[in-house]
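Entry 12.
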Amino acid sequence: MPYDNEKDRLRRLNYQRNYNREHKEELSQKHREYYQKNREKILEQCVKYHQKNKAKRNEQTREWKRKLREQLKLEIGSICAICSEIPKIPIYHKKDFKSHIGLKSEHSGESNPKYILDNSKDFIPLCRNCHKTIHRFKRYQKEFERLLN
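Predicted 3D structure (tokens):
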């Protein structure tokens, strides 16, 4: 819908926002009903879109991961907490040394980079060598914990 001026466009946009806010439940119900009636068609369209735009989606995923890595570096840091090395891709390990998170891991539970950001106080960055050492020498776990506290 073309608008004669910016003021009309903004007025219409404001009206739509208010309407959507006031009728949120009704609209949600309509969307649910539509989805239930047309589920197969919608899923088929999604599959076609993903197949057609695979390269674009892969690029978007790479960009998303890059942004998350940058956020993690800002929030938690990228310098190894044990040896002070600056790894290319740090491994974010739980401070309790019971689990670790690499950015190439699955996106569920503690493996999700968003989980790491939300619980950043529970994680430390490690380089690959220190990470290996921790897992090889579990008997020195208390010493590692002491070094980090």
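Annotation: The two ends are 61 Å apart (CA to CA). The CA atoms of residues 105 and 111 lie 6 Å apart.
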